[in-house]
Protein: Crooked neck-like protein 1
Organism: Steatornis caripensis
Amino acid sequence: RGGAGRARGAGKMASTAAGKQRIPKVAKVKNKAPAEVQITAEQLLREAKERELELLPPPPQQKITDVEELNDYKLRKRKTFEDNIRKNRTVISNWIKYAQWEESLKEIQRARSIYERALDVDYRNVTLWLKYAEMEMKNRQVNHARNIWDRAITTLPRVNQFWYKYTYMEEMLGNVAGSRQVFERWMEWQPEEQAWHSYINFELRYKEVDRARTIYERYILFTLLVIVHPDVKNWIKYARFEEKHSYFAHARKVYERAVEFFGEEHMDEHLYVAFAKFEENQKEFERVRVIYKYALDRIPKHEAQNLFKNYTIFEKKFGDRRGIEDIIVSKRRFQYEEEVKANPHNYDAWFDYLRLVESDADAETVREVYERAIANVPPIQEKRHWKRYIYLWVNYALYEELEAKASKRTRQVYQACVELIPHKKFTFAKIWLLYAQFEIRQKNLPLARRALGTSIGKCPKNKLFKGYIELELQLREFDRCRKLYEKFLEFAPENCTSWIKFAELETILGDIDRARAIYELAIGQPRLDMPEVLWKSYIDFEIEQEEYEKTRSLYRRLLQRTQHVKVWISFAQFELSAGREGSLSRCRQIYEEANKAMRNCEEKEERVMLLESWRNFEEEFGTDTTKERIDKLMPEKIKKRRKLQAEDGSDAGWEEYYDYIFPEDTANQPNLKLLAMAKLWKKQQQESEAAEVDPDKDIDESQS
């Protein structure tokens, strides 16, 4: 029993202990406020990085006291290096460390053996060859070093570092011929540009100018045969080399060969700048100017900024005012060239370009630019696209006539222009008229008439008829004018101006009957653009001829067509100005007729205008009775309101307007009575308000 009880007691203790382990006690934080000094993650990272840089204590120094201990040390180190190499043979750094350790022990033969073993593993490693050769040179093993360099450049001929090191070693040893031989072997591989310049500089260090020139020639030939787009700077270096050694003729020849080689397809501004500066140093200023102008005429503007700058500086230093102006003109010409290349149909740019060229260039250059400009025909046959373009032809013809004095070319320009215009769709009367005027200035009247006749036959226009008629009038060819007017009126019978001009021509010529017949034909046309002008001209014509009865008849005929107030007023003023007996009574009678005729007119403003004109007449020529009568006819002006509607039919508010009420209109009598009663009531209201405002004043007035 005692053993069992102890076992049970032990089980309870174990379960109690297990329960205590499952629920660990957590320490309670008494102060949960944040610490005064906060530590950020950045500070933690910075501190960890700083501790990385702390130096570990150096290993203890090992002192070797005898040969046996040294051999033991060497054996252990060699075993370590060999184990590292055996683990990974391709890690060249292990081989190099092994060889350098052997070299530090003056075991050159062992180091050489290690390098050879490493080369068997990776003979393409450049660092390995360099370390091997440097070891031999450091230990003054010149022949061994030469052997290594020869093997290196034979195995890896495209590694320029081997060649540089090899030639430098031979030159430091004073073996100039050997170094030159190495350079020659290198040049056979056609290396990059810097290798050639290194060879040239090597020869120049030993004053071998002829050899250096030969190398330059070989290099230029190499660039011509091998490189598709050779660089300009190589030619410039060659020329400067010749210039530096005072071979100026050779330098100029190099520049000329370069210009010829690159041609106009691959022009570079740097070549021409260098060429011009060379000639400037030689005091050949005219050659400099020619070089700059040649280049500026052929290199695009965006690629010739430096060229422009140097040319400007040159002209400011050695040129005159004309030269400076020339470069400014050249610069502007380049700008215009770029604009017209970007958009050939930008006619404004062509106009500016042509204006510049005309002010400075010769006739052939101007003609060339004009031909280029007029070649850009608008792609769409619509007149609005041709309006600017056609002025190129006009300016071209005027230039040939006035500046170049070439009448034959001027005629060709006009003829080419009129052939180019699509006359079936539209035409330009200006071109035909300028062509005809040019032929007249050349005293070639038949050609002028033929041109105008062709224009009227192909594409009749009012302006063409007017210009042709004006020409014949100046030549006093009145029969031709009559024929032209007849053709003109057949083409445009609604043009009132043409009828009037035709009638005026006949009037000037003294043929009154023809003029009257023309007017009669004109007013009989079914459609006219300005009939009021035509009737006024006809009436003025009859008044000038003092045909008053015919004038009255014309007014009556006009009033049958229109009841416009201005016609009535003009009729009344005509009767007044006739100056005969009974003119006042006839004038008053016309006003009476007009007033009766316009009673049913909806436009009350016109009737008011008539009555005002009548009143002015009566004030000047009438009696008191007539004046009183016209005053009674004058309307009352009242203000009214009417409702407005928007486009969608909704109400838009009210607006005020003025209306007229005429006394003689019987329909308006109730309105007049109502208006009079309203005025009387308003007057009474005003009087009563005045009496209420100041009653004492009324009492004092009554006492007095």
Observations:
- The radius of gyration is 57 Å.
- The mean pLDDT is 80.
- DSSP finds 36 helices and two strands in the chain.
